[in-house]
Design a protein that fits this description.
This protein is an alpha+beta fold. 55% of the residues lie in helices and 14% in strands. It contains 24 helices and 20 strands. A 9-stranded mixed beta sheet has the order 16-17-15-18-14-13-19-12-20. Strands 3-4-9-6-8-7 form a 6-stranded mixed β-barrel. The protein has a 4-stranded antiparallel beta sheet with strand order 2-10-1-11, covered by helices on one side. Strand 7 and strand 8 form a beta hairpin. The two termini are 33 Å apart.
Amino acid sequence: MKNPLIKRVPRELLSDWHKYLVIIVFMVIMIGVISGMYVGHDSMLSSVYAGRDELNLEDGSFELSKRASQKLLDGISSGERADVRTYYIEKGTKTADKEVAKAIDEKLNEQVMNIIEEGVRAQCAAFGIADEEIIKQQIDKAVIDSFDEVLKQVKESEEYEKAVDEAYEEAHEEVVKKVDEEWDEVSDRYSLDDPDFEPVAVNIYEHFYREEPEDNNNDGLEDANVRIFKSDAEIDKASFNQGRAPEKEGEIAIDRMHADNVGVGIGDTITVGGKKFEIVGLLSYVNYLTLHESNTDLMFDAFGFDVAMVTPEAFNKLHSRIHFSYAYKYDAEPQSKVEQADYSDNFLKALITQTLVNDNEIDDYLPEYLRQASNFAISDIEGDSAGTSILCYILIGVIAFIFAIIISNTIDKEASVIGTLRASGYSRSELVVHYMTMPVIVTILGAIIGNILGYTAFRNMAVYLYYNSYSLPVCHAVWSNTALIKTTIIPLLLMFFINLFVIVKKLQLSPLRFLRHDLVRTRRTKAMRLPRWKFLRRFRLRILFQNMPNYLVLIFGVIFIELMLCFAFGLPDSLTHYAKEAPDMMFAKYQYMLMDYLDDDGNVIETSEDSAERFSMTELLYPKNRSSFREGMGSGGDESVTVYGILADSSFIKLDKSSDDNSVYISSAFAKKFELSKGDNITLNAEYENKSYNFKVEGIIDYDGGIAAFLDVDSYNRIFEKEPDEFSGYFSRNEITDIDDQYIATVITEEDILKVTNQLMHSMGNFMDVFKYALIVLSASLIYLLAKIIIERNEHSISMVKILGFKNSEIGSLYIIPTAIVVVLFSVISFVIGYYLMVWIFHIFMLQMDGYFAFFMKPLSMLMSVLYLLIGYAFVSALDFRRIQRIPLDVALKNIE
């Protein structure tokens, strides 16, 4: 027999469609936005990682001063170190032999001439010839007649052979001595005699490029610098977002992000290197996901730098010099970060030695794992999931709260029906199934619509935000288990078990108590005495006390709303505040990082700038979670810590004398993020080496600009085994102009910091705007549900006072004003609670990311978060008043015992 209760389901849906519509909207927005962010995040990373294989991403690259010979390429490919010392000894010996031979010949000729001259003069003296003119004539004649014979006699003498042997031996010893001196210096500098060296075999690919000026609006002025590659490259290939690869000499494909920024597209004409090219493709190079012109750039520049592709014929007709760049891939891939570093170090040793013995020079060397252009975007995208996760957890808590109050209200509202059904013979299990049906239907419907939007519209929105920040390839939607679990399965399980728990608990009551609406397990034995106020005031106060459980629910709901509004307003404010304050957090107006502390001649790089001060620097890792399997050296879950070596009398960073050899000062950002204080012990790990360093926190430096640690320079050199005069760069209050640019790795100025913060705002700000508007809609939905539930729970009382002759306006003042008082009174209190909850949640959020900045809300945003709540409630109150007007008088009569 068909269950008659099934017929009640559609009637319930129609009778209370407002409530269920709001729940569906809440679920759709929550699941759609969060799922869209997760799916967009996973889809983009999937596309990027797939491209690394499909487009043959390099394991590293190097640039030589001239084109490599096949012999050099074969030597580098083998991964073996060349015998540089022997090569230079042999080369020096050959040169020395030539010089010695030349010197011997000159000395020998001089000696023969002297012998002949002495013999002639002796003969002339014997014959009494004193005329110098005659003597010279005789000498010249003797040279012509007997030079070769005398030369032969001298060469056959033992003295000559001994002198020659000694000359060559002395020259060879000098060559060996000089080579050893220079080789020892070079070998020590690059650890070329490392006994643990292991050859790393590679495949090498030509990847030459030219750099030309780009005029993208054809006004005759240079707008950008473009790096041009050939279209037939076998390594570091490009994917096409739009269009195709160039096929003719007059065609070019350029970076998609750069094209968007400068306002050009397919079919437009640009001038490159003085030649006109038609844009036929917008591409994304696998090794240029961000447009870093140099790996030492603090931030990429998608306006002033571009990468492009032309045909080999067009490439050959350009005029700028060719950069002889070569990419390589390992025969055997490294399996860890430590192996990556070992491979790179060993390959560099082979590269240095092979280029030396083949008379070439290395202009640049960069392993892929350190390349910003191919790793910066990936790191940033991976970090975005932290903010999405925090928002997801907040909304899961809100959904759990909504399900709890809605099912409780449904049971109270349906008390008479439940009592009748139980008295008619329906079992508890049948009623449990019936009252679970509607929440399950609504939740599943919201989940289905939300996931559809999450994999379409909201995913596209998330992908667009990524495209607006980086030069990324086309991506296709991929299935996201994270999105399914966090946005669908968890809410469904919460709904199911919360509803099941409440329904089963409520149905333990007898049918008679349901019929009497006697659902309260504890009741007041004595009425509360009220003040001697006017009747309406006393009535209103009585309603307030009678609805205290409902108002407690409302207060908890208001706290959730303020928490969401703090998230909505606070995150953009925090980003803006950090961007504004970041330039003031710099140690010095100029911070110069050097390629090395020695110049090409082995001299220490000095400057005459009075304000310049040396510092040393290295990067280590701090384990984020000591109980996690991710803990470890370079595990990917650790925090990057910049460790500085500071001069004792530094004018930029003041350090007190340490009480311990391993004492360290840490930045205030480091201390706040990981809740460290003076006296704590910390361990920092080397990312690409199996080394750990233990320190005791000696004090905290007021510096919120980054996660940093500070040592006096002597301790730094001792701990990290550095030479006493070795350093990494200069702090300076003024620009340094007397250091050659070739020795400067990067210069950090206020302008560079602003570039970083602007990019942070550009990449994260768009996500924050999405979260902001979504949370405002969700907050309005929540307050609507809460206010509606209070009116529903008082329908019987409202109907009764209507019977007693009260007007709708009077009834509204009785039931809406107490609720308004509670909302207004607790809006500020709830904001304070929500604010500090958000500070705590934000701290957890920052633990999932690299770096640190504090949660911040502008006073205006604080005011707006409260006003949004009050304005939303004012709107809901108008709806509540209309709802009061529509409550019929027979509601009270239906529930009379």
